[in-house]
Amino acid sequence: MEHPVTAVYDANILYPAPLRDLFIRLAQTGLVRARWTETIHDEWVRNVLKDNSQVSAERLARTRTLMNEAIRDCLVDGYEDLIDSLTLPDPDDRHVLAAAIRAGAEVIVTYNLKDFPADTLARFHVEAQHPDDFLVSLFDLAPGLVCAAVKRQREGLRNPPKSAEELLATLENQGLTQAVARLRQFVELI
Fold first, then answer.
1. pLDDT tier at 173 (50, 70, 90 boundaries)?
2. φ, ψ of residue 116 in degrees (nearest 5)
3. d(CA 44, CA 11)
4. Which tens digits make up the pLDDT trace of 77-136?
5. In which order are the strands placed within the sheet that holds 127-129?
6. ∠ CA(175), CA(179), CA(180), 5° rounding?
């Protein structure tokens, strides 16, 4: 994998706040050129609001703005004309693949691997990766940068603050089991 790798972040990895925070910080290291669309934003925001009545639409609008400001050139546009020509198991996911094609992305980071069949994506030189596998590949290339991103994430947690081990447990609960196993070897750096 060449770096920075261009990756479209699917809505399901932007939905959980700990994952969203980590994957934004990973992009800030220069290892990843993170991309998403306003439609992907709409999807994760809609689901957070549906599942969590404590979170306000205004707060999520602010988060969305901060994300767009934190990552240079993150928004993909001009992909809509590709959507109808694409075939995926879930037609509602075609916009993600269309954005990846338009962005020249090598990877779609998603939990929904079954919705992005490898043979279909290969035609466009894109692969879908589970966030754990994606993080492991970044870690194997640049463990120091990944540890630094996780440390910045931990240092940014104020309400409540978390120890390195507490943050790793949170990430493990998000399905990042392989990556957390590697990160635990460097817990003193986090």
1. very high
2. -130, 75
3. 5
4. 999 999 999 999 999 999 999 999 999 999 999 999 999 999 999 999 999 999 999 999
5. 32-35, 5-9, 107-109, 127-129
6. 80
Q: How many CB atoms lie within 10 A of CB 166?
A: 13
Q: What is the separation, in whole angstroms, between the first and last Cα of the chain? A: 25
Domain range list for the chain: 1-190
Quote the CA–CA distance of 57 and 150 in Å, as a whole number: 27
pLDDT digits (tens, 9 = 90+) for 145-158: 999 999 999 999 98
One-letter identity of residue 82 = L
Phi, psi of 51 (to 5 degrees): -90, -10
Task: State if pTM tops 0.90.
Answer: yes
Instruction: Domain 1-190: give its CATH code.
Output: 3.40.50
Q: Residue 10 has what DSSP assignment?
A: P
Q: What residue type is 98 in one-letter code?
A: A
- What is the Cα–Cα distance from 125 to 107, expressed in whole angstroms? 9
Task: Encode burial over 117-139: b for 16+ CB neighbours within 10 A, e otherwise.
Answer: eeeebeeeebbbbbbbbbbbebb
Q: How far apart are CA 78 and CA 65, in angstroms?
A: 20
